[in-house]
């Protein structure tokens, strides 16, 4: 997004509240050029969730390049314009920018990504306004829970129940009986894991030590750690936000808490967090929804997963992030649906077309016709283990592919 | 955790809160300046240490002789450029100016250093713990927490001596007591206040370094630190340094004891305590009634 740095500087000076009106005004406003297809893209780029959006400039840039010549739908050619919006990591702001996209920018489809705080308010806005919406990076149970029925909004991502099953499969590889410690904060992800893992541990006949719903952003975990030590926790299952995980895991070392297996969803998805932990990242298990080793390529221009990650590295000097693949996939599905709609300006037709989509993107296979529920395409969830790569950093090595054997394993699980 | 362990951990954690709060207590007690950007300045201290230690290849501890003078200089500059003017602009101006400063610091840090959570690597000591037996129960304590507590004691003690025993301290106390009279008898107020602001920012930076070693920081970490620091100052008594230590320890204790019951209520318990203190004893436990307490 070209206006990004200047807008950020603006933010610093003006504060947040006064800006609502200005930020829209800074962007190219929508003229009435009926022939252009406008795609809105909502993601957190600043604030606590900024790590999810850090690759956006690159991903959106590659998509812009791939659709530079426009799309041909039903014999007519349409130029494509992508309008990006930042949620500033706030759910309220996400709803606000979605409304802006719908009303001011008159977009034909809205894409939204990264955590329930983005996907749910944006999907709600689109559903209410009758604008096609495609979301990702929010477990589908959280996206669908208590909302719906869905006509215009769709989701493409993994599910928490399936993820719990995959984790449980991994725990069973250790053999014998265990005590699972659940480090689940007082937020949506923490609650969902508590809901799915608690019965799972009971089913296995093991004991569970629940941390209790601590507040995100806590800086001291000594009471939780000593409760885990006291209950002999040897498998840790955690869904903290990234900074809290680094804090917790360091304090776990300080307080001599060393479980046999450490499974961390959410926080350990990101190479930057592994880099912050340094040697402490060794052996931590994390879900893998996307990695450069996935054997898929972009349906827009044929770029492979590896090349996408490498391109990002070359352009920015930073390591790949898991959201890259899914965010790119979102654009691919949107383009496929716009093409299949027959008329990209007909919102009902575009929305219905998403529901018929089935194919392959750089993120993997998607299929909206066979989801766990209507309007959802469930992606497979793999597990990886962070391992030292010999050059001072850590790589995520895929150790479980039971849900998608087409993606190759890269190593065996090693106990901590 | 057992109760003995909770109490000991609470006191140690409280030391950090006191360290984070003492600069705030100082600027408020002496200059009547509520510095909303105090937490962000602490985070800046952590980033400065990170940048210096990776640029010079030095361990975190060795960069402190560089970080603290730089932080002091930043504090002096902030006073001369911003705080001094703001203080002349009525009671609301300092709050607005420092709030703006806080928003600016956060966004500049995001723009310049990204939103990644960072932490400071203090080597093996930072990951080591010690087991002690007290009152028949075994407690594991982190060396880093112990070091943080001792540092807080040293800083607060040093500041107390500085204010109570030195001629500079006499100037500060006189200025804080009666600004106009101090001016009349020839005290040059600007350098005195600028020095105090420098000391406050240096202590904030030190608190930021400990935050970086025990936990993580990101550009937005300052807000939460500020809230707890502010509560420590109010609970302890506005403007009183020993009160601030007590306020910090009280917050640490309440957090740990509430966690024994349910970790969900640790933050709430602190806020409730804060509310109760405001309602029942708004001047705090040890208000700075005597100028000696500064």
UniProtKB/TrEMBL annotation, chain A:
Family stated for the protein in its record: Belongs to the leucine-binding protein family.
Official protein name in the record: ABC transporter substrate-binding protein
Does the keyword ATP-binding belong to this entry? no
- Organism phylogeny: Bacteria, Bacillati, Actinomycetota, Actinomycetes, Streptosporangiales
Show the Pfam families listed in the entry. Answer: Peripla_BP_6 (PF13458)
CDD domains according to UniProt: PBP1_ABC_ligand_binding-like
Keyword Signal recorded: yes
Do you know which InterPro entries this protein is assigned to?
BCAA_transport, Leu-bd, Peripla_BP_I
- The organism encoding this protein is Sphaerisporangium corydalis
UniProtKB/TrEMBL annotation, chain B:
**Where located?**
Cell membrane
Q: Which UniProt keywords apply?
A: Amino-acid transport, Cell membrane, Membrane, Transmembrane, Transmembrane helix, Transport
Which positions, given as ranges, span the membrane? 6-29, 41-60, 66-83, 95-115, 135-163, 192-214, 226-251, 263-280
Q: What membrane topology term does the record carry?
A: Multi-pass membrane protein
- A Pfam family that this protein carries is BPD_transp_2
Q: Which family does it belong to?
A: Belongs to the binding-protein-dependent transport system permease family. LivHM subfamily.
Identification of the protein by name: Branched-chain amino acid ABC transporter permease
Q: Which organism is it from?
A: Sphaerisporangium corydalis
